[in-house]
Amino acid sequence: MSVLLSLENVTTGYGAQNVLHGVSLEIAEGGLTAIIGPNGHGKTTLLRAISGLMPLRSGSISLGGRSLAGLRPDEIVAAGIVHVPQGDMLFPEMTVIENLLMGAYLPAAAAEAPRRLERVFALLPKLKDRRGQIASTLSGGERRMVGIGRGLMAGGRLLMLDEPSLGLAPIVIDQIYEVVAELAGAGQSILVVEENAARVADKAALIALLDNGELVWSGAGAELMARPEILETYLGA
Fold it and tell me: Is residue 162 in some structural domain?
């Protein structure tokens, strides 16, 4: 498969502290790629760097061969990268459908909003039932689904999900990952950050392990699950 997103020697951080140290990674077009690793070791920072929320201190990021250097976050969205952040991050006093439509604020996405809305409702039928409900009254799992649906409304080439399972009950996590697997199977390129390797081992085409801001291992899910020394050393499994 062709390379969609390329990171070369990416370094960034907060204040005087670097969090990422020369991360290089290639993400293929189509399917699911997972970034795993312990909490506080740079996974969220990596997504923030890709989406332009954190300036690079060195290195480069390109999408489909186009450099993202110097682009604002909204320009990166327009280029095709959609970031669904950790937690709910909804507009709490807006309805479900109003939150979803906020994902289609760019002109190109707005033109496709009716068709994309039907797709979101087909993937996440509970949202259709809740479309007039105020976001703050939803359950945790429903809010997470709205966040993913809002990301899909933007129509990006790459959908980035930051720990979509965070704080949810196991049965809801299974539902979320069923949707993620369905999207990936239909050809949507997805980059997901996940702390629990078992949740993505059988779904991701590539798993990359980030530890202390460095890429220390990458490979297929089956290979990772067959390496207990990696799981024990880096993930406490």
Answer: no
